Amino acid sequence: SQCLEEPQEELNITDLDEILTHLKKGHYPSSNWKELGLKLGLYDNTLSTIESNYSKVEDRLRECLAKWLQRADGVDAKGGATWTTLINALEQCDSGKPTAEPISE
């Protein structure tokens, strides 16, 4: 997986499926998408828009990660869209710690 080889490499929208696969393997709860979005640098109004546009938490998580990959809002200030940034954000969320470990190994 590229996350082991290039943890600092900029990710983009083509990496969305791989990221979702890692989160699923790590049993990340989709219902915590909003907390993760904030940690990744997305603004609350962006997350509220996602919430009103999508009813399923899985879709909200996907759209949240897509916005992150598009480097919306304050994403660059939080380190940009990289595996390292994602792992750090997961580690800051209580529910994300078990998910972060397998990705970073």
UniProtKB/TrEMBL annotation:
SUPFAM superfamilies, alphabetized: DEATH domain (SSF47986)
Signal peptide range: none
Full protein name: Death domain-containing protein
Family annotation (PROSITE patterns): DEATH_DOMAIN
Domain Death intervals: 32-94
One Gene Ontology biological process: signal transduction
Coiled coil stretches, renumbered: none
